[in-house]
Amino acid sequence: MVFTLILTMMMKNKNNNMKKLIPILTVFLSFFLFPSTSLGEWKYFLSTSDDNKFYVDYDRIREKNGYVYFWSKTEFKNKFMDKYLSSLEYKMGDCELFRVKFLDITLYTGNMLVGDSKIITPKDKWTYVNPNSYLEKILKSVCDNS
To answer: Which CATH class name applies to 39-144?
Structure first.
């Protein structure tokens, strides 16, 4: 529909509109033909008892020097810190000692990583995952898929 509208506009005034619409058309087509890698391929992983939903981007798991690096996303049922409904987290996992280091956290006021955001730089420390926790299950899955 949008593509048809753009083509119709181009045909009305070929000389003037063509030069203006070529960049717009290029961006539009690029978005659909070559999806942005920043969108990620989020795979639903689990929900907690308080109905928070966790997702992992398995396509972006990287392994380096014995560690796994991965992105996860959380959709909060209730506002986190009285303001945020979703978060994007970059983590470093140690599959041998079963621990995680949070490298980057971005909180969003809206669901699906939209709205105002706040970047948090976590402390440079390892977190040993609790047995049967959501974090243990995510780390096990990431390690199995790396």
So the answer is: mainly beta
